[in-house]
Amino acid sequence: MDTQVLVIAEHDNNNIAPDTLKALNAASQLGGAVSVLVIGHQCSSVTDTLSGAAGVTQVYQIDDERYQNPLAETLTPAVFGLAKDHSHVLAAATTFGKNLLPRVAALLDVGQVSDVISIESANTFIRPIYAGNALAKVQSNDSKIVMTVRGSAFQACAVSQDSAPVVNLDVTETTNTTSEFIGIEETVSERPDLSSANVVISGGRGLASKENFALVERLADKLGGAIGASRAAVDAGYVSNDLQVGQTGKIVAPDLYIAVGISGAIQHMAGMKDSKVIVAINSDPDAPIFEVADYGLVGDLFEIMPELIDKVP
Protein backbone atom coordinates (compact mmCIF):
# COMPACT_ATOMS: atom_id res chain seq x y z
CA MET A 1 0.00 0.00 0.00
CA ASP A 2 1.35 3.41 -0.99
CA THR A 3 1.88 5.79 1.89
CA GLN A 4 -0.47 8.74 1.52
CA VAL A 5 -0.53 10.90 4.64
CA LEU A 6 -3.24 13.40 5.54
CA VAL A 7 -2.54 15.92 8.32
CA ILE A 8 -5.46 17.84 9.81
CA ALA A 9 -4.47 21.46 10.42
CA GLU A 10 -5.42 23.15 13.68
CA HIS A 11 -5.84 26.92 13.34
CA ASP A 12 -8.04 29.91 14.20
CA ASN A 13 -8.58 30.95 10.56
CA ASN A 14 -5.60 33.30 10.79
CA ASN A 15 -2.81 31.53 12.64
CA ILE A 16 -1.58 27.95 12.58
CA ALA A 17 -1.27 26.11 15.88
CA PRO A 18 2.47 25.43 16.46
CA ASP A 19 1.83 21.72 17.03
CA THR A 20 0.45 21.37 13.50
CA LEU A 21 3.90 22.19 12.08
CA LYS A 22 5.35 19.57 14.41
CA ALA A 23 2.78 17.03 13.25
CA LEU A 24 3.86 17.77 9.66
CA ASN A 25 7.45 16.95 10.62
CA ALA A 26 6.25 13.63 12.04
CA ALA A 27 4.22 12.96 8.90
CA SER A 28 7.27 13.46 6.69
CA GLN A 29 9.02 10.63 8.57
CA LEU A 30 6.40 8.14 7.42
CA GLY A 31 7.64 8.27 3.83
CA GLY A 32 5.36 9.07 0.93
CA ALA A 33 3.24 12.07 -0.02
CA VAL A 34 2.01 14.43 2.71
CA SER A 35 -1.22 16.39 2.26
CA VAL A 36 -2.80 18.90 4.64
CA LEU A 37 -6.49 19.56 5.18
CA VAL A 38 -7.47 23.11 6.16
CA ILE A 39 -11.11 23.57 7.16
CA GLY A 40 -12.37 27.00 8.18
CA HIS A 41 -13.76 30.30 7.00
CA GLN A 42 -11.68 32.98 5.31
CA CYS A 43 -8.64 30.88 6.13
CA SER A 44 -6.59 31.50 2.97
CA SER A 45 -3.65 32.87 4.99
CA VAL A 46 -3.40 29.52 6.79
CA THR A 47 -3.59 27.64 3.52
CA ASP A 48 -0.91 29.83 1.92
CA THR A 49 1.47 29.27 4.82
CA LEU A 50 0.96 25.52 4.92
CA SER A 51 1.50 25.23 1.18
CA GLY A 52 5.07 26.31 1.85
CA ALA A 53 5.66 23.89 4.72
CA ALA A 54 8.54 21.46 4.17
CA GLY A 55 7.42 18.09 2.86
CA VAL A 56 3.87 19.13 1.98
CA THR A 57 2.89 17.99 -1.51
CA GLN A 58 -0.72 19.20 -1.55
CA VAL A 59 -3.13 21.30 0.50
CA TYR A 60 -6.86 20.64 0.60
CA GLN A 61 -9.04 23.59 1.59
CA ILE A 62 -12.69 23.75 2.61
CA ASP A 63 -13.62 27.38 3.14
CA ASP A 64 -17.18 28.11 4.20
CA GLU A 65 -18.90 30.25 6.80
CA ARG A 66 -20.35 27.11 8.38
CA TYR A 67 -16.80 26.33 9.54
CA GLN A 68 -16.20 29.71 11.17
CA ASN A 69 -16.18 28.03 14.57
CA PRO A 70 -16.05 24.32 13.73
CA LEU A 71 -16.83 21.59 16.22
CA ALA A 72 -15.47 18.06 16.07
CA GLU A 73 -18.94 16.78 15.20
CA THR A 74 -19.04 19.15 12.22
CA LEU A 75 -15.51 18.48 11.01
CA THR A 76 -15.66 14.68 11.21
CA PRO A 77 -17.69 14.05 8.00
CA ALA A 78 -15.27 16.16 5.94
CA VAL A 79 -12.20 14.46 7.39
CA PHE A 80 -13.74 11.02 7.01
CA GLY A 81 -14.56 11.64 3.36
CA LEU A 82 -10.96 12.56 2.56
CA ALA A 83 -9.42 9.95 4.87
CA LYS A 84 -10.75 7.15 2.69
CA ASP A 85 -8.19 8.13 0.04
CA HIS A 86 -5.21 8.16 2.43
CA SER A 87 -3.29 5.48 4.29
CA HIS A 88 -2.54 7.66 7.34
CA VAL A 89 -4.49 10.41 9.08
CA LEU A 90 -2.58 12.54 11.58
CA ALA A 91 -3.20 15.40 13.97
CA ALA A 92 -1.33 16.82 16.92
CA ALA A 93 -2.22 15.35 20.32
CA THR A 94 -3.89 18.59 21.43
CA THR A 95 -7.46 19.02 22.62
CA PHE A 96 -8.39 19.55 18.96
CA GLY A 97 -6.76 16.33 17.75
CA LYS A 98 -7.90 14.24 20.69
CA ASN A 99 -11.48 15.35 20.12
CA LEU A 100 -11.57 14.87 16.36
CA LEU A 101 -9.52 11.81 15.38
CA PRO A 102 -11.22 9.17 17.58
CA ARG A 103 -14.46 9.98 15.75
CA VAL A 104 -12.71 9.55 12.40
CA ALA A 105 -11.14 6.27 13.52
CA ALA A 106 -14.53 4.96 14.61
CA LEU A 107 -16.07 5.74 11.22
CA LEU A 108 -13.14 4.06 9.48
CA ASP A 109 -13.53 1.08 11.84
CA VAL A 110 -9.87 1.12 12.86
CA GLY A 111 -8.02 1.60 16.11
CA GLN A 112 -6.21 4.83 16.93
CA VAL A 113 -2.53 5.12 17.87
CA SER A 114 -2.29 7.95 20.37
CA ASP A 115 0.43 10.27 21.62
CA VAL A 116 3.19 9.00 19.32
CA ILE A 117 6.66 10.30 20.22
CA SER A 118 8.74 8.43 17.64
CA ILE A 119 8.14 6.86 14.23
CA GLU A 120 10.06 3.70 13.36
CA SER A 121 8.26 2.82 10.13
CA ALA A 122 4.98 3.45 8.36
CA ASN A 123 3.15 1.14 10.79
CA THR A 124 5.40 0.98 13.86
CA PHE A 125 5.49 3.71 16.50
CA ILE A 126 6.72 4.49 20.00
CA ARG A 127 4.32 5.94 22.55
CA PRO A 128 4.54 6.49 26.31
CA ILE A 129 2.54 4.42 28.80
CA TYR A 130 2.24 4.40 32.60
CA ALA A 131 2.48 8.20 32.79
CA GLY A 132 5.61 8.19 30.67
CA ASN A 133 7.54 5.74 32.85
CA ALA A 134 7.64 3.16 30.07
CA LEU A 135 7.64 3.27 26.30
CA ALA A 136 5.58 0.91 24.18
CA LYS A 137 6.39 -0.10 20.61
CA VAL A 138 3.08 -0.32 18.78
CA GLN A 139 2.51 -1.89 15.38
CA SER A 140 -0.75 -1.36 13.56
CA ASN A 141 -2.07 -3.85 11.03
CA ASP A 142 -5.22 -1.86 10.27
CA SER A 143 -6.04 -0.96 6.69
CA LYS A 144 -5.62 2.71 7.63
CA ILE A 145 -3.70 4.29 10.46
CA VAL A 146 -5.20 7.12 12.50
CA MET A 147 -2.77 8.67 14.95
CA THR A 148 -2.06 11.68 17.14
CA VAL A 149 1.52 12.83 17.73
CA ARG A 150 2.94 14.55 20.79
CA GLY A 151 4.19 17.95 19.71
CA SER A 152 6.94 18.15 22.32
CA ALA A 153 8.64 15.12 20.74
CA PHE A 154 9.08 16.70 17.28
CA GLN A 155 10.60 19.88 15.90
CA ALA A 156 8.41 22.17 13.82
CA CYS A 157 8.91 21.77 10.09
CA ALA A 158 10.42 24.64 8.13
CA VAL A 159 8.20 26.99 6.12
CA SER A 160 9.48 28.54 2.91
CA GLN A 161 8.18 30.54 -0.04
CA ASP A 162 7.65 27.35 -2.04
CA SER A 163 4.04 26.64 -2.83
CA ALA A 164 2.38 23.24 -3.01
CA PRO A 165 -0.82 23.07 -5.08
CA VAL A 166 -4.07 23.95 -3.32
CA VAL A 167 -7.25 21.99 -4.04
CA ASN A 168 -10.56 23.56 -3.03
CA LEU A 169 -13.14 21.02 -1.92
CA ASP A 170 -16.90 21.30 -1.66
CA VAL A 171 -18.55 21.49 1.73
CA THR A 172 -19.48 18.11 3.19
CA GLU A 173 -22.80 17.63 4.94
CA THR A 174 -22.46 19.52 8.24
CA THR A 175 -25.67 18.55 10.01
CA ASN A 176 -24.92 18.44 13.73
CA THR A 177 -27.68 17.85 16.24
CA THR A 178 -25.51 16.90 19.21
CA SER A 179 -23.57 20.08 19.93
CA GLU A 180 -23.73 23.82 19.36
CA PHE A 181 -21.10 26.54 19.36
CA ILE A 182 -21.90 29.12 22.05
CA GLY A 183 -18.77 31.22 22.37
CA ILE A 184 -15.07 31.35 23.20
CA GLU A 185 -13.56 32.63 26.43
CA GLU A 186 -9.82 33.04 26.07
CA THR A 187 -7.22 34.13 28.58
CA VAL A 188 -5.29 37.02 27.08
CA SER A 189 -1.68 37.25 28.21
CA GLU A 190 1.48 38.94 27.02
CA ARG A 191 3.46 35.92 28.19
CA PRO A 192 4.37 33.15 25.73
CA ASP A 193 1.99 30.27 25.20
CA LEU A 194 2.69 27.51 27.72
CA SER A 195 2.85 24.70 25.15
CA SER A 196 5.45 26.39 22.94
CA ALA A 197 7.45 28.56 25.37
CA ASN A 198 11.24 28.17 25.60
CA VAL A 199 11.14 28.93 29.33
CA VAL A 200 8.50 27.70 31.76
CA ILE A 201 8.27 28.47 35.48
CA SER A 202 5.77 26.28 37.32
CA GLY A 203 4.47 26.58 40.84
CA GLY A 204 3.07 23.93 43.14
CA ARG A 205 1.34 23.41 46.44
CA GLY A 206 4.44 24.65 48.26
CA LEU A 207 3.53 28.25 47.38
CA ALA A 208 0.68 27.88 49.87
CA SER A 209 -1.62 30.55 48.40
CA LYS A 210 -2.82 32.32 45.28
CA GLU A 211 -1.12 35.51 46.44
CA ASN A 212 2.25 33.79 46.79
CA PHE A 213 1.98 32.58 43.19
CA ALA A 214 3.02 36.13 42.29
CA LEU A 215 6.60 34.98 42.93
CA VAL A 216 6.33 32.62 39.97
CA GLU A 217 4.81 35.36 37.83
CA ARG A 218 7.58 37.82 38.67
CA LEU A 219 10.32 35.33 37.77
CA ALA A 220 8.51 34.38 34.55
CA ASP A 221 8.26 38.02 33.52
CA LYS A 222 11.96 38.59 34.14
CA LEU A 223 12.92 35.50 32.12
CA GLY A 224 10.36 36.10 29.39
CA GLY A 225 8.80 32.75 30.15
CA ALA A 226 5.41 31.13 30.49
CA ILE A 227 3.68 30.14 33.72
CA GLY A 228 2.74 26.58 34.57
CA ALA A 229 1.39 24.80 37.63
CA SER A 230 1.02 21.39 39.18
CA ARG A 231 -2.41 19.84 39.53
CA ALA A 232 -2.25 20.42 43.28
CA ALA A 233 -1.82 24.16 42.70
CA VAL A 234 -4.68 24.21 40.20
CA ASP A 235 -6.98 22.22 42.48
CA ALA A 236 -6.17 24.60 45.31
CA GLY A 237 -7.30 27.52 43.15
CA TYR A 238 -3.93 29.26 42.85
CA VAL A 239 -4.24 29.48 39.04
CA SER A 240 -6.65 28.44 36.30
CA ASN A 241 -6.58 24.87 34.97
CA ASP A 242 -5.34 25.92 31.52
CA LEU A 243 -1.90 26.33 33.13
CA GLN A 244 -1.70 22.78 34.45
CA VAL A 245 1.36 20.80 33.39
CA GLY A 246 1.24 17.02 33.61
CA GLN A 247 -0.39 13.83 32.47
CA THR A 248 -3.87 15.37 32.66
CA GLY A 249 -2.66 18.84 31.66
CA LYS A 250 -0.26 20.12 29.04
CA ILE A 251 2.91 18.38 27.91
CA VAL A 252 5.84 20.78 27.66
CA ALA A 253 9.50 20.43 26.69
CA PRO A 254 11.07 23.90 27.00
CA ASP A 255 14.77 24.72 27.02
CA LEU A 256 14.43 25.65 30.71
CA TYR A 257 11.85 24.38 33.21
CA ILE A 258 11.86 25.73 36.77
CA ALA A 259 9.71 23.86 39.28
CA VAL A 260 8.94 25.92 42.39
CA GLY A 261 7.42 24.15 45.37
CA ILE A 262 6.52 21.08 43.31
CA SER A 263 7.25 17.72 44.92
CA GLY A 264 7.28 15.86 41.59
CA ALA A 265 4.35 13.47 41.51
CA ILE A 266 4.61 10.98 38.66
CA GLN A 267 1.66 12.62 36.90
CA HIS A 268 3.39 16.02 36.88
CA MET A 269 6.74 14.71 35.73
CA ALA A 270 5.03 12.98 32.79
CA GLY A 271 4.33 16.46 31.45
CA MET A 272 7.76 18.08 31.78
CA LYS A 273 10.56 15.54 32.14
CA ASP A 274 11.63 15.97 28.50
CA SER A 275 12.62 19.59 29.18
CA LYS A 276 16.21 20.36 28.18
CA VAL A 277 17.24 21.78 31.59
CA ILE A 278 15.19 21.25 34.76
CA VAL A 279 15.69 23.33 37.91
CA ALA A 280 13.88 22.34 41.12
CA ILE A 281 13.33 24.48 44.21
CA ASN A 282 11.95 22.56 47.17
CA SER A 283 12.43 22.38 50.93
CA ASP A 284 12.33 18.56 50.94
CA PRO A 285 15.69 17.08 49.85
CA ASP A 286 13.96 13.76 49.18
CA ALA A 287 11.31 15.22 46.85
CA PRO A 288 10.96 13.08 43.68
CA ILE A 289 11.43 16.17 41.49
CA PHE A 290 15.16 16.10 42.28
CA GLU A 291 15.45 12.72 40.52
CA VAL A 292 14.90 14.40 37.15
CA ALA A 293 16.32 17.84 37.95
CA ASP A 294 19.60 19.00 36.43
CA TYR A 295 19.96 21.59 39.19
CA GLY A 296 18.34 21.58 42.61
CA LEU A 297 17.96 24.18 45.33
CA VAL A 298 16.96 22.76 48.71
CA GLY A 299 15.54 25.40 51.00
CA ASP A 300 12.67 27.74 51.78
CA LEU A 301 11.28 28.98 48.47
CA PHE A 302 10.08 32.16 50.16
CA GLU A 303 13.73 33.02 50.82
CA ILE A 304 15.15 31.62 47.56
CA MET A 305 12.65 33.10 45.11
CA PRO A 306 12.99 36.81 46.07
CA GLU A 307 16.79 36.50 45.93
CA LEU A 308 16.63 34.70 42.59
CA ILE A 309 14.28 37.33 41.17
CA ASP A 310 16.58 40.12 42.31
CA LYS A 311 19.63 38.52 40.69
CA VAL A 312 17.98 38.00 37.28
CA PRO A 313 18.75 41.02 35.11
Highlighted features:
elongated, 313 residues, seven-stranded parallel beta sheet, 25% strand, Rossmann fold, alpha/beta, single chain, five-stranded parallel beta sheet, 8 helices, 24% helix
CATH homology-level superfamily of the largest domain: HUPs
**Overall mean pLDDT:** 93
- CATH fold group of the largest domain: Rossmann fold
Distance between the termini: 57 Å
Rg result: 21 Å
> Which strands sit side by side, in order, in the main sheet?
5-9-4-1-2-3-10
Q: Count all strands and give the number.
A: 15
Strand-helix topology:
Blueprint: E1 4-8, H1 18-28, E2 33-40, H2 44-50, E3 56-63, H3 72-83, E4 88-92, H4 95-108, E5 112-116, E6 118-121, E7 124-129, E8 134-139, E9 145-149, E10 166-168, E11 199-203, H5 214-223, E12 226-229, H6 231-235, E13 256-260, H7 266-269, E14 277-282, E15 295-298, H8 301-311
Parallel strand pairs: 1-2, 1-4, 2-3, 3-10, 4-9, 5-9, 11-12, 11-13, 13-14, 14-15
Antiparallel strand pairs: 6-7, 7-8
